[in-house]
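Researcher: Please generate the 3D structure of the following complex. Treat every line as part of one assembly.
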Amino acid sequence: MSVKHSLLALLYEKPRHGYELKTGFDELVESMWPLNAGQVYTTLDRLERDNLVESPGHDLKDRKQYTITKQGKDELWNWLEKPVGRSLLKDEFYFKYLCASFVDYKDKQRMIQVQKQTMMKDVLNLTQLRKQMNQSGNKTMKMLVEGALLHLEADIKWLDMIARD
Amino acid sequence: MIQTIGLKKVFNTGGEKTSVLKGIDFSVQKGEFVAIMGPSGSGKSTLLQLLGGLDVPTEGAIKLDGVELQKKTEKQRTIIRRRKIGFVFQSYQLLPTLSVYENIAFPLHADGRKVDSVAIHELLNAVDLKGYDKRFPYELSGGQQQRVAIARALIHQPDILLADEPTGNLDRERSSDILDLLSAFHQDRGQTIVMVTHDLFAAGYADRIVLFKDGLIETEVQREDDDYAEFLSRFMA
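Model: Done. Output below.
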């Protein structure tokens, strides 16, 4: 997750001070990803150093305001345009399965079943989260949850496949 | 509320015996929403038929509020079913010559009970079909027909709702609508639901998922609040 780009996105919407960026981030991700104030300020320092944001000064309560620069907007668009490569095989359970096969682990079926149970629980929990997103009206976060559910569906099918192997 | 003990079902087809359920111990508590999943032929729909008293087991017992269904005659099972159980099917099974209102009222007629017009309209509101009472099934979309079927299944305030692939004929968006609706009846009114589905997306709406495999329960998982907190922290990691 790129804190840098999420702060640029928030500043693209409107100028904000540090604490507003923290609360804006929490709203953006429905408070699901923890971000502490320290991370916000260190990221802001780097963004300012790289001329991606600038400060027009302090507000009436003496809080330093930030705005996005032209360079910052370009950086945001470049990041949005760039496709994301994924490391599909570097999965913890894949690796565990590989090692289990390597040592001829006798409880491999049990290992697969327990993994499946965990993933089924994830399905129940993700659906609960989806309901919350429905209630909060956050359609974008709901779509992320839908995406995670589709991944889980594929993972569970794969577990059934290796269980038959 | 409902419990099966050592439930077995063998079908005789052309002299050949097929064992569909091989000893199922399963129970559902009042107010629970349970999803039964499994591949085709794993016995999940047969279990639903037995729970609803539509068929009797070859061996074992089904207790509905302490009453052993398999010991009852077909006529007695029908009476129990009409009073205590609501059914929703994949293919809706609405009566094509009856209006929406008449379809919903049908279970009350069948049981010789007074038709409660207020309750029908209240249910029509709940399933988001206000003003559709005079329409006929052929005038409705698949999702709307399933909404009528849910209203029909709930008009007699059954103790338990049995749903067999209720979203099987619907695309994902319509499925979500139907599942949101079932979920609302479960959460807001405490409706006990047992739903058979092959769709993981649908099963996620339940409190508990029971996985069937070759006529036996393979595994089951339950959603708990403690797990949810742990899940959220892992999901965000």
